[in-house]
Each structure stands twice: as C-alpha cells, then as structure tokens.
Amino acid sequence: MKQYQSKLATVLLAAGLLNFGLAPVYASETSESLAGDTMVAEETAAEHEKQATEHEKSAQEEAKAAEESAADHKKAAEHHNKAAEHHAKAAEHHAKAANSTGMTHEKAAEHHKKAADNHTKAAEHHMKAAEHHQKAAEGGK
Asked: Which helix (H) or strand (E) is 15 found in, with range?
C-alpha cells in the first residue's frame, strides 16, 4: 500500500509541475483569444454605427423628397384652382353671349354655346385636378 501511495504522490507531483508549467501558456492563449474577440466586437460595432448613419441619411433624404413633392402638389393645386376659375368665368361669358345673340346670329350662338360647354368641362377637369393635388400635398393619395 505504501508503494502505491508513493507512486500516486509522484504522479500528482508531476501533474502539478506540468500544470504549473502550462498555466502561463494557457493564460497567454486565453488573453490572445479575448483580444481577438474584442477586436471583432469593435469592428462589428463600427459597422453597425456606419449602417445606422447610412439609414439616418437615407431617411432624411426621403423626408426631404416627400416635402418637396407635397410643395409641388400644392403649387399644382393652386394652378388648377386658378385655371378652373378662369374657365368658369369664360363659360359664363360664352353662355351670356350665346343667349344675347338671338336668332339673327345663330352660328355665333352655337359657337358660344360650344365654347361655354368646353370651358365648363375644362373647369370641372381643373377642379378635380386641384382636389387631387391638394390631397397629395396633404399626404393623401
């Protein structure tokens, strides 16, 4: 039994010395591994920050484009409103002219009636366009 204990002590002593000798090597490898992990984490964080900056820039550009589009639609709505008013006035003018010419100017009366109808249609078209552009300017479709 004593002989067994002596061999066991020798094995344990040798194992202890081996462990003591390998400990600095293991610690060095662990330190290098942690440094590598830290570098990867820093690179990943930098890439994520770059992507976030790109997304923010893209969002700002889209917002600016939407504002410009709304402004364009508002201008178009104003233009169509003015055109609708113009055509409505012209329709009134031609309707009056058609009514005042009587039977002696039958051809002139037909011309003014057609012109009045055309201006009425144009006024309706411009009113619809103005409504469309107004909705678009407000963010609707």
From this structure: helix 2-101
What's residue 32's pLDDT?
66
Look at the alpha carbons of 120, 123, 128, 131 in this order and tell me if their dihedral is positive or negative. negative
Q: In the numeric block, which tokens belong to residue 46? A: 């930098």
Q: Distance between CA atoms of 109 and 99, rounded to whole angstroms?
A: 7
Q: Is residue 116 a contact partner of residue 95, using CB atoms and an 8 Å limit?
A: yes
Q: What's the angle, vertex CA 75, arms to CA 68 and CA 73, rounded to 5?
A: 55
The predicted structure's pLDDT at residue 137: 79
The CA-based dihedral angle spanning residues 128, 134, 138, 141, taken in that order and rounded to the nearest 10 degrees: 30
Q: Which token pair is 14?
A: 């040798």
Taking each helix axis from N to C terminus, what angle separates 106-137 and 2-101, rounded to the nearest 10 degrees?
160
74 within 8 A of 95, measured Cβ to Cβ: no
Q: Residue 10, Cβ neighbours under 10 Å: how many?
A: 10
Which token pair is 11? 């094995």
Angle subtended at Cα 46 by Cα 38 and Cα 50, rounded to the nearest 5 degrees: 165
For the chain, list residues with pLDDT below 70: 1-36, 98, 101-105, 140-141
